[in-house]
Amino acid sequence: MAMTHEKAPGPWARTEGLKDQLQAGSSDSVQRATVNRDRARWHITLGSIRAHLDEQPTPRARRAAARRWCAAITAMADEEVTA
């Protein structure tokens, strides 16, 4: 049973960082490529997570899978901060 996504996606996660990159003074084509690459990576990553959640058989399993994703992402961020 697939989840329905009636809500439009929210703002980009790293919009402020991208704005800073754009104002750093590099060429327009490099700036556009950087923004597009980051947006594409964001969508691919979220799409993969969403596909995994859609594969879950029950709402309870979806919530459990979402919690596991959150825990894994948080653990990864903690590793980066302490490295």
Would you kindly provide a written description of the structure presented here, covering whatever features stand out?
Helix 2 crosses helix 3. The chain is built from 3 helices and no strands. It has helices spanning 15-22, 28-54, 59-82. The chain starts with 14 loop residues before the first helix and ends with a helix. Helices cover 71% and strands 0% of the residues. The protein is elongated, with a radius of gyration of 16 Å. The chain is mainly α and 83 residues long.
Task: Briefly characterize the structure.
This protein has 83 residues and is mostly helical. It has three helices and no strands.
Poorly predicted runs of 5 or more residues:
none
**Percentage of residues in DSSP E strands:** under 5%
Distance between the termini: 40 Å
Order of helices and strands: HHH
Measured as a percent range, the helix fraction is over 70%
Helical stretch tally: 3
* Structural class designation: mainly alpha
Taking all Cα atoms into account, the compactness measure Rg is 16 Å
Task: Tell the overall outline.
Answer: elongated
What is the β-strand count? 0
Main beta sheet, described?
none
**Rounded average pLDDT:** 81
